[in-house]
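Quick question: what would this complex look like in 3D?
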Amino acid sequence: MTRARGLLWIAAATLRADRRGAIVNAAAACLGAASLVFFLALGLGVSRAVQRMFPSDARLVEVVPGTALLGDVLGGGRLDDDALARLAALPGAAAAFPRVALRVPLAAPGPPSGIAYSWPAGMTLQIPAVGVAPELVASDVRPGFSFQDPGPGSGRAIPVLLSRRLLEIYDKTIAPAWGVRKLPPLVSVVGLELPVKVGLSIVPHRTEPRIADARLQLVGLSDRVPIYLLALPLATVRRLHAEWNKEDLGYTQVSVLARRPEDVPGIVAAVRRMGLSVDEGEREAAERVGTVVLVTTGALAFLAIAMCALAALAIAQSLSASVRARAKEIAVLQAVGAAPSDVRRIVLLEGAMVGLAGGIVGAALAVALAALADRGAAAALPDFPFRPETFFAFPGWLAALGVVVPAVAAVLGALAPASVAARVDPARTLS
Amino acid sequence: MIRLRGVTKSFRDAGRSVPVLRGVDLHVAPGELVAIVGPSGSGKSTLLYVAGALDRDFAGDATVAGVSLAGLSEEGRAALRNESIGFVFQSFNLLHGLTAAENVMLPGLLRRGRTDAVPALRARAEHALEEVGLAEKADQPPARLSGGERQRVAIARALLVRPRVLLADEPTGNLDAVTGEAMIQQFAALARAGLSVLVVTHEERVSRAASRVLHLAEGRLS
């Protein structure tokens, strides 16, 4: 056994001897740890929920045509192949993916085939759609499916992608409001086919002279698809525009993928110099909510740190009183061989053990409180879109932080009492 | 072995220096039990704490267990107390939160370098308690022991690390006559076993068992 273990044994025995004081000190550390872990876990959990709600890609810049006046003055404004090539060549840009809004009306007169559904009699669902470059959404296409234009007269279904968030909104908002069935839980909607009529519009005078039957097949869910739009392959949209004699108006939007998030500001500035605009609506919303969550979490974490500091002060005061009361015992320890440095270490170890014990219990308490809060939220809050299963996130590092911070705070609180203990004069105290 | 030469010590009281020890010379050889007697306040305890490396604020030369205290660091003094000096106090000075065995273990826990693990140390402590006749009291807290038993626990603690010097400050002061006499006989036996035993007391009965009896008065030994 080393002397360090001996000192540890003595510190533990001292705490055992003064159980009440040790429990009070550990409770102070426990409170600090519990609040720190609870608030940080809440911040992380809410951040995760916000990311689900606004899954903006930090590297994507959404470019839209500039306003007519500004575009004319700067010699740009239109999103054509030339603008696309220039956007792809911007410093910091990894790629540019064009989008074209489908201007041929698309409507579903019935439910998807293959699932029983209470489709209201006579209802026709107008489907807004956009053509996107397959490369932009390649990672979201379910294996075994393809996101390529099937070509004219092939008889194959047109592959489509849906926003992942639309399903959540449908389940939590649209289905209850319309009184229709929710999507069956744990059943994948990928692969479903929806019969549609191309050229049919529910808006008077917008129906095309020619209406053709087609089928859409859902091949995946993507966060890169606008929430209320169906995404078709860009080539399909171009083909439909050609078949229905629609004029080429260029691209409606281009998604520029930056190499790194740090490249985004430079790309945004360059886009504006080209006379184009940047659609920052969703990104700004995500950033605003993210900032609010970050600031709130920071404030709560600061409060928790302040509680840890108060715990350190309480431990300092308690240990100081304990050291004063134990002066004779400290002198006895010196008489049997403890050096002043040993006495200092024993008191610091007492603080560390109290802090560690409080931290472990506090972290566990925070997890239990979070479970209670989740249960309360599940009972009290309505089932709104993107409502998370839990409002808390407990990564491993958070539990470690919850234990280490109160332990460090307790050791800092023990510094002054340890110094006082080390200065006990054994000869004078024992006389 | 204890050797003090010209040891002088003063206390400051109300801004003036009050001499307690005035050039004390003392030699206690191995196997010798020396009793220092004198009235209360004569400086007996101070002399003991100087010899026990607990008090460093003195003038003169002091050598204990072959180690000169002059210029010895705090760590060096603590190591000397731990390895070579055993203390027995009038008020026993046991730690109340620990059991008798745990009190006896303390010097072993503070030992420098590698030493016994806690279970082995506890076994040694129980053996030391057995030697002073307290084997069955190992798990008792001091509050449940009589005065004589507490003093025997203190002796077991002092002897755990097999010291070369035993210093006792009024060891029979809180004991009844029979228990005190047994304690004195125990010190005499330890001296015969080769320890240098220095006992300060104001009780004349201690001197009957001592090899030599020295009188401390007005800071001087005679």
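Answer marked as accepted. Chain A has twelve helices and eleven strands.
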